[in-house]
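Morning run. Coffee first, then this:
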Amino acid sequence: MPDATLRPRRSVLYMPGANERALEKAKSIPAEALILDLEDAVAPDAKADARKRVAAAAASGEYGHREVTIRVNAPGTPWYADDLRAAAEAGPDAVVVPKVESADTVREVERALEAAGAPDRTAVWAMVETPRAMLDARAVAAASERLTVLVMGTNDLAKELHAEHVPGRAPLLTGLSLALLGARDAGKAILDGVYNDVQNPEGFEAECVQGRQFGFDGKTLIHPSQVEPCNRVFAPSAEQIDRSRRIIAAFEEAMREGRGVVTVDGRLIENMHVEEARRVLALSAALG
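And here it is:
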């Protein structure tokens, strides 16, 4: 299976499934992926209509290069089974499942999608947003080949921890780290959670930088104004690209000459640095 971490997902924007104008506007927003939402953004009495609207949008093929996903309501809710069947029939790029806490849940989702006729290309994105999910993140991530992405649910995680939302996210760092460890050990992509204050662009950009430094592949977003800075922060910089090229060139030259020691800018270069340099260049190429 292709490396899920090399598909660009710098910016992943939630769009309310009950809002037809928002679904139309999403066709022109430069987000790399969309989550057409049937859960938090939709009132109970609007769930059925939103389900039809979102399924039609996901099946339309009108979103260009964007990865189009559907977030269903959580397992155990009255809407979950119908959401999953409709999503399977629509055949989006992925189905986003909230409140995933175990490998068993992932396998149940996979069986239900297959029973409903979901195409092989429709992946599962599992939202991890509880203490149990953090502690079992590796088992969740490794539960299925169809599962390609973990999505951090940081608002719910903060609620479950009785934690405060503070700059730097100190109360959440253990959970973020555990989820990242689980995703990377299983070879899956992982997306950072949302930033709630759309009126604070400086705070948002700082959290994007933190997420990139941690190793997240991108960030989930709640407003179109967050897309541009998120794309910019999560893209390899010109300096990273230049250094990556020089690392690979120096290493290959040393291998040809039979030298065991390679340095770039005075720093020792080993295989792991070359692998990371190649990853940076592959991501840059994928971004065009």
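The chain has a mean pLDDT of 95. Good start to the day.
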